[in-house]
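Long-time lurker, finally posting.

We've been working with DUF4339 domain-containing protein (Dyella telluris) and I want a structural starting point before designing mutants. I don't trust myself to interpret raw outputs, so I'm hoping someone here can both generate the structure tokens and explain anything notable. Sequence follows.
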Amino acid sequence: MLNGEKIWIAQDGQRSGPFTQEDVRQGIAERRYGPDTLVWHKGLTEWVPLFSLFPENTVTPPAPPPPKATASAPAAVFTAHDRPGSTFNANDPAPVAASPGFGYASHADYASDRVDRRDLPTPPSLHWGLVFLFSILTLGIFAIIWPFIQANWVRKIDGDSKATMMLAGGLVCLVASEIVAPGNRQSVLGGLLTLAYYVLWITAYFSMADSIKRKLAEYSLPVEIGGVTLFFFNTFYLQAQLSWIARWQDTGSSNPKPPKAAFYFLLLVPVFVIAMLAAIAIPQYQNYVKRAHAMELQRGQ
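Top reply, 14 upvotes:
Generated this for you. Predicted structure of DUF4339 domain-containing protein:
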């Protein structure tokens, strides 16, 4: 008598579950279980054949394929001590038997298969504000070098990343634009090369963002990188994400989240400065126009 108990399946040396009775019956109907499939549920002392618990769903199982002539490990034999515990916590890694070659897959959670965050290459953790400051102090040279450091780390976690090549191609286009049309902003070729630089540079950052989101998902860390913010603040915004990842790797905590509003505030600073300068300059200009007009009237008299 099952009495609604969840069921564990043992097949081909692998344990999986727990499954509901409806899931098991559907698996039987789809012929996913063979004659050697064993099951266990709370209350049983041993693993038992699947079809002994579901005689009403018994179907003629397909004939097993003939054994290969090559030597292989002996089939796993499940005994009472191999069964899962009487209680199951979906948030904890499930026990694995000590016999060589034995595997376990949990239907509810794959926590035991997660990659350890300590295996992740350490990302560059320089604060984005310092990257911004060093870029100003070096007249933009640091802002050209640092993206290659970021792309190099992305290449470590994603060997297929082409971000470094795109950054290098963009830099070549920028240098070529200055050689082809030095000081001539009206040059068509120079303009096209400059446009190619911006396109390659932005594309490289979106490529890095995609690699980071895909690869960090393997470490069960959801990374959210806003496209608009990345477009306008690519180097600095991505660095904020990398610093956040470095802190998570060190502490295991993903809070607080990477900053985003700070970058929009940074965007408003030039607007605020221009508005302040305009508030000072416009009245001065108006006074100058009035004085000039008065002087013209005096000369006319």
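Before you design anything, note these points.
The mean pLDDT is 77.
The first strand starts at residue 7 and ends at 11.
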